[in-house]
Amino acid sequence: MTRWLCASLAAAWLIAASLNPSYSGDKKKDPPKNRIAHTSEKEAGPDFQIQGEYVGKHDGMTIAAQVIAKGDGKFVIYGLKGGLPGDGWEGQEKLKLDGVTEDGKVTFKNKDISGTIKDGKIMVQKGDDTATLERVVRKSPTLGAKPPEGAVVLFDGKSADEWQGGKLVEGDLLNNGIRSKKKFKDYTMHIEFRLPFMPYAGGQDRANSGVYMQDRYEIQVLDSFGLKGQDNECGGIYSQFAPKVNMCFPPLSWQTYDIDFTAARFENGKRVKPAVITVRHNGVVIHENQDIKGETGGGQPETDTPGPFQLQDHGNPVYFRNIWVAEKK
User: Fold this and answer.
1) Which tens digits make up the pLDDT trace of 63-111?
2) Are residues 190 and 235 in the same domain?
3) Is residue 147 part of a domain?
4) What distance lies between CA 256 and its chain's CA centroid?
5) What is the DSSP letter of 243?
6) How many folded domains does the chain comprise?
7) Contact 271, 263 (CB under 8 A)
8) In CATH, what number is assigned to the domain containing residue 323?
9) What's the CA gap between 250 and 282, in Å, rounded?
10) Do residue 320 and residue 194 come from a single domain?
11) How many CB atoms lie within 10 A of CB 91?
């Protein structure tokens, strides 16, 4: 092997390793790119520092952007008028742009607009007009919510004993692929979750999990940051109802579901009233007094009996914390 070829291969390995800290260079050991899941900012690599939400002003109007990492220094950028989802954006059409990393910054352009992303800022130019958007990190207003008096605490970071198959992860977090030992009928509940950073994955392969009410009705958990918000994306009542707004934060952010649930009612073995649910995702109502059609995919059949929570395992390291339930009398 020539010295030139050795140097070229070494350079290629260094580039791959910088873009993907989990990359070892050994094809037999490295997982497929779309299965690589980072669970900390430290290991997430440079693309993670670019991905996220940005806000600025132009002609007195708030403008915003959501930047989604696609791996290898590539990004999808959505421009929003009025602000971010749940904070000014009214659901009108998005401007979509593709970005790529060049010379230490991300560049993007179409026939009308050009710009760069660097050091936590997006610089946009359209003709003689310019605008600057700065990276923001939003937090759910219900993050860290304390259980009310009399609530059942299912996880407080100290013990996973309330869960079948429950384990402590990273010291004080809860794993997935588990069911609560206690069963519930009507209640309000709070749960916090964190999605891994999986830039090469897409669709249902990108940080997939789910929170099942009574092990029957799934509220989808998925990294659908910046996407449309479908019934099989984050916050969707799986395959039944899309969220009113896609409130999914970027991966590795702690997110919240606050759920009010009333179980289906049965008489003589027949359902006479459907289950009803209200869901707040990161503090914003995404389903309000929504009748559920019936059990969702993978859910247990509807009956008049209480049921446990299931935190679904779909092969991705989605972790949970601060879970409590206040039962309705």
Assistant:
1) 999 999 999 999 999 999 999 999 999 998 899 999 999 999 999 999 9
2) yes
3) no
4) 10
5) -
6) 3
7) no
8) 2.60.120.560
9) 12
10) yes
11) 13
In a domain, 279, yes or no: yes
246: which 2 tokens? 């896609």
Antiparallel, parallel or unpaired: β 310-311 and 178-180: antiparallel
Query: pLDDT value at position 92?
Result: 86
What is the pLDDT confidence band of residue 187, given thresholds at 50, 70 and 90?
very high
Last residue of one domain, picked from the residues 75, 106, 136: 136
Considering the domain architecture, whether residues 24 and 112 belong to the same structural domain is answered as no
Residue 192 CB neighbour total at 10 angstroms: 22
Beta strands at 84-85 and 88-89: parallel, antiparallel or unpaired? parallel
- Which residues sit opposite 87 in a β-bridge? 84
Tokens of 116: 């760069």
Residues 79 and 120 in one domain: yes
Please indicate, yes or no, whether residues 213 and 272 belong to a single structural domain of this protein.
yes
Same domain (yes/no): 279, 204: yes
What digits encode the pLDDT tens for the residues 268-321?
999 999 999 999 999 999 999 999 999 999 999 999 999 999 999 999 999 999
Strands (E), 129-172: 129-136, 152-155, 163-164, 168-169
**CA 41, 100, 89, 245: dihedral to nearest 10 degrees?**
-60
CB contact set of 233 (below 8 Å; sequence gap of 6+):
220, 222, 224, 227, 242, 243, 246, 248
d(CA 274, CA 37): 38
Q: How is residue 275 written in tokens?
A: 């289950």
**Residue 7 main-chain phi, psi, to 5 deg:** -65, -40
pTM summary value: 0.90
Residues 69, 74, 76, CA angle at the centre, nearest 5°? 60
Q: What is the mean pLDDT of residues 110-137?
A: 96
- Residue length of the chain: 329
Instruction: Write the CA distances from 226 to 1, 6, 52, 73, 204, integer angstroms.
Output: 46, 41, 9, 17, 15
By C-alpha distance, which of 228, 256, 258 is closest to 243? 228
40 in a structural domain: no
Q: In what order do the strands lie in the sheet with 217-221?
A: 163-164, 178-180, 310-311, 209-213, 217-221
Residue 144 tokens read as: 């860290």
Q: Which domain, by its residues, includes 117?
A: 46-136
Return the closest-CA partner of residue 180 out of 325, 329, 318.
325
